[in-house]
């Protein structure tokens, strides 16, 4: 009968069988051969790529990445994968190796077709990656090796216990890109309590930006002034609009805050945050005085009829390049003399000049002057005075 020898190729990529034909001496040799084949069929061969993973996707959109910090993830694997019978007979396990956390494998899931199979990654395997590992040097991404191992194997990054290829899946954190916009935030005007512009910062961003539909939220933190939750669009975006916290704008002049971005997922213990390189730092600046002019139509003003008053404000010449204009909207009050007679909203034109809307008002007539002494006949000389109850009234 033929006697078969099992040998292993040097690169562990295949098994070779050689036959040495010798005369059969007894029927029992055939049984031994059958037992040998059964043994080989039901035992995983370490280092042998029996199965092949050709693709892995995450979420309903079929993303090729996993968000850092997510509370567990299900990957849809595609390729030549073990069916239920092969999983049970050989006790195969899934492996998600990042260099951090446990090296233990985890159970496989039932295939959804002959070429697809879900792989449920435990939360601990993803969240074991320290957030300090997500830096600009690695594009805020840590590579995980996804493969199938034998029941007695460990997830240690080697192929010793692997029965499939190692498929790379990036674990991605959110990040802020290089920012070139304004870094001076004008202090809130205490007279109007209106937050000054800019009210939003448009900042380049990338990585995985989470939203409520994905079971999480992306926030931007302003130093010790707390964080703001972003509205992440459903479509891909290369920048985000970050609202400036009112608490920060109303802080003392020269207060500064450095920005960071975080992903927080439902059920996760901690958020995953990254700090941009170079850092993005905002500073509260003092309000610059504005030079204003007022015009009246008609001029000179008549004592009756309608008068149009227009106020115009521009940034003071000595305000400096970093001093932004004040609030994008507000109200101008017209007083004469000392009493408010009208108000008008400010509008910002394309030349960065505040111009009020024209305000129509009717000038009040001055009270009737009082002549002292009153009319009558007098002997001798008299001093006659004319007075008006309106302060600063001019008498002609």
Topology:
Layout: E1 2-8, E2 15-21, H1 28-41, E3 52-58, E4 66-67, E5 73-80, H2 84-90, E6 93-97, E7 106-107, E8 116-121, H3 123-127, E9 141-149, E10 167-172, E11 175-176, E12 184-186, E13 200-206, E14 216-222, E15 227-229, E16 239-243, H4 246-249, E17 256-265, E18 272-274, E19 281-285, E20 290-297, E21 306-315, E22 331-335, E23 340-348, E24 354-356, E25 359-362, E26 370-372, E27 385-387
Parallel strand pairs: 4-10, 12-19
Antiparallel strand pairs: 1-2, 3-5, 5-8, 6-7, 6-9, 9-10, 11-13, 13-16, 14-15, 14-17, 17-18, 17-19, 20-21, 21-24, 21-25, 22-23, 23-24, 26-27
Mind explaining what this structure looks like?
With 396 residues, the chain is mainly β. The protein folds into four domains: 2-41, no CATH class; 52-172, Sandwich (Immunoglobulin-like), CATH 2.60.40; 176-285; 290-362, no CATH class. Helix content is 8%, strand content 38%. It has helices at 28-41, 84-90, 123-127, 246-249, and strands at 2-8, 15-21, 52-58, 66-67, 73-80, 93-97, 106-107, 116-121, 141-149, 167-172, 175-176, 184-186, 200-206, 216-222, 227-229, 239-243, 256-265, 272-274, 281-285, 290-297, 306-315, 331-335, 340-348, 354-356, 359-362, 370-372, 385-387. Strand 17 and strand 18 (272-274) form a beta hairpin.
């Amino acid at each position: 009968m033929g006697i078969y020898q099992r040998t292993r190729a040097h690169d562990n990529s295949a098994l070779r069988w050689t036959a040495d034909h010798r005369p059969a001496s007894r029927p029992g040799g055939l049984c031994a051969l059958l037992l040998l084949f059964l043994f080989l069929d039901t035992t995983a061969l370490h280092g042998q790529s029996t199965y092949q993973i050709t693709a892995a996707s995450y979420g309903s959109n079929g993303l090729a990445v996993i968000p850092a910090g997510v509370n567990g993830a299900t990957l849809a694997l595609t390729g030549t994968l073990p069916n239920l019978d092969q999983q049970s007979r050989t006790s195969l396990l899934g492996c998600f190796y990042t260099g951090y956390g446990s090296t233990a494998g985890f159970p496989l899931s039932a295939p959804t077709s002959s070429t697809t199979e879900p792989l449920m990654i435990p939360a601990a395997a993803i969240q074991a990656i320290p957030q300090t590992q997500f830096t600009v040097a690695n594009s805020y991404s840590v590579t995980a090796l996804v493969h199938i191992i034998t029941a007695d194997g460990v997830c240690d990054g080697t192929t010793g216990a692997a029965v499939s290829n190692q498929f790379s899946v990036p674990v991605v954190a959110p990040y802020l890109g290089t920012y070139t916009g304004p870094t001076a935030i004008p202090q809130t005007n205490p007279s109007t309590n209106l937050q000054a512009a800019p009210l939003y910062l448009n900042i380049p961003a990338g990585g995985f930006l989470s939203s409520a539909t994905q079971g999480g939220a992306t926030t931007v933190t302003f130093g010790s002034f707390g964080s703001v939750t972003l509205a992440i669009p459903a479509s891909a975006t290369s920048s985000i609009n970050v609202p400036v916290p009112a608490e920060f704008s109303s802080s003392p002049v020269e207060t500064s805050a450095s920005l960071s971005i975080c992903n927080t997922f439902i059920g996760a213990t901690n958020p995953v945050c990254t700090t941009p390189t170079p850092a993005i730092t905002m500073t509260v600046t003092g309000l610059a005085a504005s030079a204003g002019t007022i015009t009246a139509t008609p001029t000179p003003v008549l004592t009756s009829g309608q008068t149009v008053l227009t106020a115009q404000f521009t940034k003071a010449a000595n305000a400096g390049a970093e001093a932004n204009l004040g609030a994008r909207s507000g109200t101008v009050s017209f007083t004469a003399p000392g009493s408010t007679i009208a108000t008008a909203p400010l509008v910002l034109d394309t030349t960065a000049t505040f111009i009020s809307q024209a305000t129509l008002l009717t000038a009040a007539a001055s009270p009737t002057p009082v002549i002292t002494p009153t009319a009558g006949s007098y002997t001798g000389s008299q001093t006659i005075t004319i007075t008006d109850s309106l302060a600063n009234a001019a008498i002609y």
